[in-house]
Structure formats: C-alpha cells, structure tokens
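Lab channel / #folding
Pinned by the channel admin:
"Please post every new chain as: sequence first, then the structure tokens as a reply. Keep commentary short and put observations after the output so the thread stays searchable."

First post following the new format, from NK:
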Amino acid sequence: MEQRSQAESALAGAAYGMLFVLGVVMGVVGGFTHGGEIWPAGPVPVTAIIWLLALFGVCLGAGRMMRSRLGAGVIAVGWLLVSMAFSFELGAGDLVISGSTAGYVYLYGGICALVAAFWLSPSSGRSWLMHGHPESSQL
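Reply from TO:
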C-alpha cells in the first residue's frame, strides 16, 4: 500500500470538501428550478430531466476524476441532504419540491441517477473488507 504525504492528503480532503459543496449547490439550484419550463413540452418535465442528466454526469465525472466511488458519493450526500430537506413541508405549508410530476421526476429520478453514477464509477482498488487477509489474495 502506498503512503500519501500530508500535502497530498490535505489536497484530497479539500477536493472532497469542494465536491460536497458542489452537491449542495446543485441541490439548492435544482430544487428551486426543476419545475420551470424551458419550452412548452406539455406534461413532460423537461427541466427536471435536464437536471437528472446533469446530476448523473457531474457525479460520474467526479467519480472518474477522483478514481473512486467516494467522489460520486460525496456529491450524492450533498445533493441528498438538500433535496430531502426541500421535500419536507414546513408548518406554514411551504414546500420547495412539490408533489407534482416534475417534483417526483426530480427527486426519485435524481436518486436513481446518483445510484447509477456511484456504481459506474471506478472502484478504488481492493475491498476494504478483505484488506490484509492473505486468503483474499488467492481469489
């Protein structure tokens, strides 16, 4: 196993922190704009679908650039925290992600996009469960 210097570790931590912030920003902006219309397409929530594609692409790109599933997972956690908070109804009846078709497509489709991007991202190497066991290298 290769050892990282303190500078490399700090740089990786800063990169993951920025990916988390990117996920939060995507959740906030997407939460407020997913119901808008770019062009009249009838009952098809075009803006929500565009947000799903953007979310999938950014998560998959982060996973591939960081060469680990953690890159996609950090963005996913940031987006999920904001999106789940936006889906709760407040006492005054305020709701950001509503129960409309666009809201359902954005919320549940976003979760599916995050899971797909996570699983399509490269694994960082050996399994952390099997690390250090000599019989795992014989498989």
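NK: Helices lie at 6-33, 46-65, 69-86, 101-120.
TO: also worth noting, The chain is about 60% helix and 0% strand.
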